[in-house]
Specification:
Keywords: ATP-binding, Cell inner membrane, Cell membrane, Kinase, Membrane, Nucleotide-binding, Transferase, Transmembrane, Transmembrane helix, Ubiquinone, Ubiquinone biosynthesis. The protein contains 21 helices and eleven strands. The chain has 545 residues and is of the alpha+beta class. It folds into three domains: 135 residues, no CATH class; 185 residues, no CATH class; 63 residues. Strands 1, 2, 3, 4 and 6 form a five-stranded antiparallel beta sheet that branches. It has a four-stranded mixed beta sheet with strand order 5-10-9-7. A two-stranded antiparallel sheet has the order 8-11. Strand 2 and strand 3 form a beta hairpin. The mean pLDDT is 79.
């Protein structure tokens, strides 16, 4: 480890100790050496002992900087790994950090675009509109020479030299994660290395802004002309790995409930549309915005009686296949029908758990965990909590939770919290059930059959004229195959006869020469009998042909 890395490592450990994060270390023979090193190398005490552990952890991550903040944000979604008090605190982490110099931002943008900003834009504001851990944004306007003359834009640029910092922090995270399973048996349950791997993948996706551009374009196309969701236009000619240019939008932050009410927004419809947008992305498009926290969602101030969401920052998305959607739809429908056996059987049928899973035990485990949820009114039941409970039970029966489902649970958590903040009486089940039931109806029964036939019509219409010819050709092929099979059977039969004859003749030879070898030592009657037997055996061998 280099000196710089040692200093960085020392800073991280010191910060954790100042906030007393080391108190979670179990007291056993594995951690005893670590405690000794802590006293020898770090003369630091917990300076925040009066604060709850979750709060201390959040403050420590905030102090360590952007990469650790984003790790905390990701960990806040893993409620299958952390208790609610810690997860709730981590969810409060905000990555609003001090912006870097606007002149440096201009240089970065001009270097990426290949010329002076004046070539395309006017009114470039060197004061950042917003600044986050990975990138910051500046405003500008297309100049009169451009196709979109007069259009206001937002230019997003990565922080300079962010990659070396990320590499250094990730390296240390892996080292710390590698130690966790050695500290106690509970450490294995956390699967720390897998968590860091998942985090690294998400982080590296965010480091290529072209990914965000592609995601935004796809989401925009999926909701083009939709009254429910608007995604700003991306100007792809100006998009590069470290710089993207997009339409500037004006809206009311969705977290500003007071401003929304003053604007006369239909809060009930707005809350319902949040749920509808989410389930539309999941079950219609199989592609959903997976970072829909309040900082990335605005509301169009126009037409407050017909409110429309505006979604930005599409760097993190989730993708689902039919198996994922079946898992979600059938799980939720069966859960709300209290059909726990169906929930259990569906996990096995979908391949999420092994085929030899004990269905009775699986059903009972789901019932024990999920039944207490129905103590609440149906309208107050949390979809995200239901999904979490399903994950936790299924994991005990060897289900490996997929990253896309964890992303979905995180997004669902955001949507639920947002919907009930906007309209506390929101009935999530009543709003979501039509999407779930409609999707299931499309996959099963006559509607599914008709849909599949429609999909296959182009193929059928193309191949139908050739069907008689292909049928006759198929019969000829079948006749040829049957003839070849008969010839093969005859050949095998002959080979088997030769094998039998050779075996019988060999036995006869053994008996004959064995008798001659011991002729003088055997009684005359026995010798004669054996010689006659060898003759009979030879005759049988010959007759087998």
């Amino acid at each position: 480890m280099k000196l710089k890395d040692c200093q960085h490592f020392y800073k991280i450990i010191s910060t954790f100790l100042i906030y007393g994060i080391d108190e979670i270390l179990p007291h056993n023979r594995y951690t005893r050496p670590i405690r000794c090193w802590r006293k020898l190398l770090f003369w630091l005490r917990n300076q925040h002992s009066n604060k709850p552990f979750g709060l201390r952890l959040r403050l420590a991550l905030q102090e360590l900087g952007p990469v650790w903040i984003k790790l905390g944000q990701m960990l806040s979604t893993r409620r299958d790994l952390f208790p609610p008090d810690i997860a709730d605190e981590l969810a409060l982490l905000q990555d609003q950090v001090t912006p870097f110099d606007g002149k440096l931002a201009r240089q970065q943008i001009e270097q990426a675009l290949g010329d002076s900003l004046d070539e395309w834009f006017i009114n470039f504001n060197e004061t950042a509109l917003a600044s986050a851990s990975i990138a910051q944004v500046h405003t500008a306007t297309f100049n009169s020479t451009q196709k979109f003359a007069g259009k206001e834009v937002v230019i997003k640029v990565l922080r300079p030299d962010i990659l070396p910092q990320i590499e250094a922090d990730l390296s240390l995270m892996y080292k710390l994660a590698g130690w966790i399973p050695r500290l106690s048996s509970e450490g294995y349950r956390l699967r720390a290395v897998e968590v860091i791997q998942e985090y690294e993948k998400t982080l590296r996706d965010e480091l290529d802004l072209r990914t965000e551009m592609a995601n935004a374009i796809r989401l925009r196309e999926n909701f083009i002309d939709s009254p429910m969701l608007y995604v700003p236009e991306m100007y792809s000619h100006f998009c590069h790995k470290n710089v993207i240019v997009m339409e500037r939008i004006y809206g009311i932050p969705v977290s500003d409930v007071e401003a929304l009410r003053k604007n006369g927004t239909n809060m009930k419809l707005l809350a319902e549309r949040g749920v509808q947008v989410f389930f539309t992305q999941v079950f219609r498009d199989s592609f959903f915005h997976a970072d829909m926290h309040p900082g990335n969602i605005f509301v169009n101030p126009n037409h407050p009686d017909n409110p429309q969401y505006i979604g930005i920052d599409c760097g993190i998305v989730g993708k689902l296949n039919d198996n994922d959607k079946r898992y979600l739809a059938e799980s939720f429908v069966a859960f709300f029908n209290r059909d726990y056996r169906r929930v259990a059987q569906m996990h096995v049928d979908a391949g999420w758990t092994p085929q030899d899973t004990d269905i009775d035990a699986f059903e009972q485990a789901f019932q024990q965990v999920c039944e207490p949820i129905f103590a609440k009114p149906l309208s107050e039941i949390s979809f995200a909590q239901v999904l979490l409970n399903l994950f936790n039970v299924a994991r005990e029966f060897n289900m490996q939770v997929q990253p896309q489902l964890v992303l979905l649970q995180k997004t669902l958590l955001y949507i639920e919290g947002l919907g009930r903040q906007l309209y506390p009486q929101l009935d999530l089940w009543d709003t979501a059930k039509p999407f779930l039931q409609n999707w299931l109806d499309e996959q099963i029964g006559m509607r599914a059959f008709i849909k599949n036939m429609k999909c296959k019509l182009p193929y059928l219409s193309e191949n139908l004229p050739d069907l008689p010819e292909k049928f006759i050709e198929g019969l000829k092929q079948q006749k040829l195959i049957n003839q070849q099979l008969r010839e093969l059977n005859q050949k095998l039969s002959r080979q088997q006869k030769w094998q039998k004859k050779a075996f019988v003749l060999l036995i006869g030879i053994i008996v004959f020469f064995g008798t001659l070898w011991h002729f003088n030592n055997l009684p005359t009657m026995l010798s004669s009998f054996l010689l006659m037997l060898s003759f009979v055996i030879w005759m049988i061998g010959v007759l087998l042909l």
